[in-house]
Amino acid sequence: MSDEERPGGPERAEEPVQGPVQELTGRQRLAAGLWPPRVTRAQLTVAVLLFVLGLGLAIQVRSTSDNSALRGARQEDLVRILDELDDRTQRLEDEKQRLAAQRTELENSSDQAEEARKQTVEKERQLGVLAGTVAAHGPGITLTVHDPGDGVKADMLLDALQELRAAGAEAIEVNGVRVVANTYFSGEGGHVAVDGRKITEPYVFKVIGKPQDLEPALNIPGGVVQTLEKEQATVRVARADDIVVDALRRAEQPDYARSSSP
């Protein structure tokens, strides 16, 4: 019994009937290879970028060519334009130097004015200290004279004041009275006055100056301290790093004198 006749035997697939194979011509094979085109993503990206770049260059070249003011100018026109640019550059450079000189002059004037103002303020302060119209502080000494027996007279205190001035005292205050150039002492023991203002013992001199010069001037043999001690007064001189002289005098306006400065 053959396989076809056997029950449950394997079935055979029907083989297709192949017709005659038609061969392509060379032109047809070339056309089939070129279309549809096989383009990768990278090639497409490069192509787009090259297109955009070329378009931009073309637009720029065209714009430059159309907008150039010198395109087609004659040689003598170009020379004239260059001369004008040189002249303008020179004028601008001259103007720059002139403005720089003005700025320097203004800065110097401002600095000089500021320096003059500072010197004026400092001079005013110094004159105020000497005139007793402003407070002062600095190193110095305190001279304290106790006179329980009223033996100290006005001329003795004036001698002490003169010794202090000669030793370089710059600001002095006696019992709350500011000492100035025309200060005077008057009265007898127990009734002493400074510039007409009565003071009582103890007599306290606050003196601003160099302590190393002020203290020895009072303690010289036969000087102020020994003279006061002969009158049974007790004298104490103490140095200090900061003495405050804050008693003030009223600034007086002269009746006749006027400044000769413009």
Please provide a written account of the structure.
With 262 residues, the protein is an alpha+beta fold. The protein contains six helices and eight strands. It has helices at residues 26-34, 41-67, 75-131, 154-166, 211-218, 224-230; strands at 136-146, 171-174, 177-179, 185-186, 192-194, 197-199, 203-208, 234-245. It has a five-stranded antiparallel beta sheet with strand order 3-2-7-1-8. A hairpin with a 5-residue loop joins strand 4 and strand 5. The chain starts with 25 loop residues before the first helix and ends in a 17-residue tail after the last strand. Mean pLDDT is 80; it is low at 1-6 and 8-13.
Features:
46% helix; three-stranded antiparallel sheet; disordered N terminus; 262 residues
Secondary structure blueprint with pairings:
Elements: H1 26-34, H2 41-67, H3 75-131, E1 136-146, H4 154-166, E2 171-174, E3 177-179, E4 185-186, E5 192-194, E6 197-199, E7 203-208, H5 211-218, H6 224-230, E8 234-245
Antiparallel strand pairs: 1-7, 1-8, 2-3, 2-7, 4-5, 5-6
Helix pairs in contact: 4-6
